[in-house]
Structure formats: structure tokens, C-alpha cells
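Pipeline run #58 for the internal structure catalog. This entry was flagged by the ingest filter as a single-chain record with no existing model, so it goes straight to prediction. Upstream metadata was stripped on purpose; only the residue string is passed forward. Reviewer on rotation: M.T. Logging verbosity set to normal.
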Amino acid sequence: MKVYRIVAWCIGRRKYTRIFFVLVLVLVLFITVGLFTHIPEPRPKSKRINQLESRLRTKKVTKLESDLSWVPRISLGDHFIHTYLSEGAMFKENGKTFDVDAEISTSLVYSFSPHVEKKTAEMFPDPAHQHVFFANSPAIVWHQNELICVLRIWLDKERYDAKKNYPYNHFQDNYLYTQKFDRHFRPITNGSLLGIPAPNNFRIGDGPIEPRIFKVGSNVFLTINTGLFFEKGNVMDYTLMWDFLRNTMMVPKIANGGIKPRPLSKGIPRDKHWAAYDDRGVLYFVHNLDPLRVLKCTMNASCSFIVHEGTSHKFSDYKNHLRGGTPFEIYQYPYYIAVAHCTLFRRSKSGQTRRYYTTHMVVFHAKERRVVYVSDNIQVHSDILNSAPIVRTTYIDDPFVFPVGLILEDPDIMYLGVHINDYSSVLLRIRGLRRLMHRVIQLDAVQQAKKGPEPGTLHTFVRTSNAKATGYDFHH
């Protein structure tokens, strides 16, 4: 009762008294809310992060201005949006330096499937209708305001091995399908098969696979790989280069080393997943990410190594996890960005070894030729991963996306051409690059790296990162 009288007395006083009383009530309200609201403690920073941020405050860093040239903006909406905290890492000569977190958003904007598969089936003379067509590996590039798309068409002969019920009509395993679109993804051309002749050397796996399309100046090139015999009957699964505008095939020649073909009886060596980039009109390939190897090539595919870390070209499926995916695109010179794929082998509870695929953003310093940053696995909505069945269930249990095409639209957005589970092809939109790249470029400016990480460092990072995220036990 006394409290009521005091309040009534205050309110009944002069105007200024009433205002003062209201302010006091607001202050009490804020104090009460603060006492009963839990504010989470910020994640403690390491000593190194504190030192680095102190240097950032004192060192002048050039304002981030992207070197992206203008490309048409793809006018499609977002579907199955998934936002997550990406946890990548920076690297220099002494290994991983520090973590870089960034909020990333992924979404589905277009599906090439099932239109491409249906269109392709109409091209094949197969009245028995026994073949199944898969369209995967969508490579993409803008050229003269047209979006050029090239996809692998896969007939998957392995699916008939168990029952030995092979189709009556025999075709090669792989073809390439191409079509052009405008920015609304309205077709500019009819889809057609790209007429690249390929040898029929093996029961399965013949024909061009894994296309990557890229530009060097005004030129448009396509890399593919296929099994080829060389002199003296030696064989290799090798990378080839197709001039897309002139319809010319080139077999790259490396002047100073590289993987060599060998007799079929000793197994087929692999030299693939080269990631191209255009450095001021000159063609380069990141031939291998870890250990880092970089090729400089002419327009007629005469190449030589200008970076060749490591002493051996011996490839290990179980140890060489991080591999090429998309071409590299310039972000802000000398920083380029690509999306690599990672192949891991996990031990299942039944004792079997199963493949596990992930995708990772990679930032490359073209002037000093070193890997600067690698992200953890790029996450997509579970509905996207589960929208297609896993084709190769003999080897794979977990759904995945596999990257081959990349477009940078503006400093914050890039597009990925990926296939889902070897079954279907889609276009993904990734947002959140601006803040991530700004942080990566800032931190690299002050960490004063003399070279990239030692061989094996990047493989260890992607393996441990994926093991932490999944709880799986991976071979290494």
C-alpha cells in the first residue's frame, strides 16, 4: 500500500518529476533484464590470434577491391538454402597458422537433370532401350554473354556386371554434352554432343570424362581425361586439352618431367584433375595441390613445371586426399579461388573400406605460387544430397557433391557446377565470399609467408577436419 502511495504521489507531481520517475523505471527494467539474461562468453582467442590482430591494427592494409571482371548476373532464385559457419585455415611454410571462420550460405539455383538425360537419350539409336544415361560434371563459363555448359554423359557399363545382362547395342561409356544459356537459363542453343573422338581401349571407362572449361584471354579451352596408349604401347589416364572455339585436340607435352606412361601390365598411372588459371593472358595449371606442382603452358599445350615440390610423382589413393576440382578464378590479384575435391577412405563397422567425398575452397597466391587458405567441407542442404540415389553403391555409402565448374559473379557470390552422387547435375550458389576473402587477404598480408606449407600439410588438414565433423576413421 505504501509503495502504491509513493508511486501515485510521484506521478501526481510536476511534469519534470514525472519524466524523472519514468527514466528511473526504464533504468530498473534494463538492470533486471541484464541480471536474468545469459550472454555467452566469447570463444577465447589464442595468443597467436591476439598478436596477429594487434599487427592488423597497426599495419596498413590495402582496401579490398575485387579484380572480378563484369559477368552477367544469373537471374534465378535460391532453393534449399543452408547457412553454416565455415571453419577454414591459413597456411605458410611452417604449416597451419590460424583458423578463419566465416558465415557461408549455399543454395540450389538450377538443375540440368533430368532434361539433359532425356535429351541425350533421344540422340542414341537404341531401340532396345537398355541404356541408362547419367549427366554429371557440369562445367560452366561465360563467353560473349552466353553461359557455355559442358556435361559428361555416362552410360555406366559397370551396372550390368553383376547379372551379366549387357545391352545388345554397344556404345562407349562417356560422351560430352554442350549447350548455351542466357542469364535466365533460357536455352540459346539446342543441346548437342560435342564431337571429340576418343579411343575405345578398355571394356569400361572409355571416352572423355571430367570436363573443366576455362578461358585464357579470349580463348576458351576444355580439359578432359581419358585412358590413352603412347609410344611402345605404354598407357596412362591422361589430361587432354580441347580448343573449344577451334575444335582442336591437344595432348599436353611436359618438357621437364611429370608422370610417365608405362606398360599396361604394371597398372595405369593417372595424371588428371589439373586446375587451370589465367595469369594476365598466360595459361597455368595447378597440376597438384599437395605437394604443390604448377605448370606453365603455351596455347598449344607445350608445358613445363615452374613449381615442383616433392621428390616423387607416386600417387597414393589413401594418402593423397586433396585433389583438383574446378579451375581457379581471379578474385583480387594475386589471389585466386577454386573449389577442390577430397577423396577419403573410411573404415566401416563391417570392416569394408568406403569412399568418402568432400569439397573445399582453396585460395592460391599466383605471384608467389603458394596455397594460402583451405576451407572445411562446403555444406549443402540435406535435401539436395538426398535428392538423388548413390549410383556406385559398391564403393560409396555417403551422399556427396563433386565440383567441376566455377563462376565468380561478384565479390560475394560464386556458382558451382556439381554433380550429386554421380546421378544428376545442378548449379549451386554460394554467398559469403566477401567477408571470407577480405579476412584471408588481410591476414596473409601480415603473416609474411615466404612459401606454402610443407608436403602433406593440406592432406592432414582436410582429413582431420572431416574426421572431426563426421566421427569417421579415415585411412592415411
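catalog note: Residues 15-36 form the longest helix (22 residues).
catalog note: Residues 1-13, 33-43, 55-63 have pLDDT under 50 and may be disordered.
status: ready for reviewer M.T.
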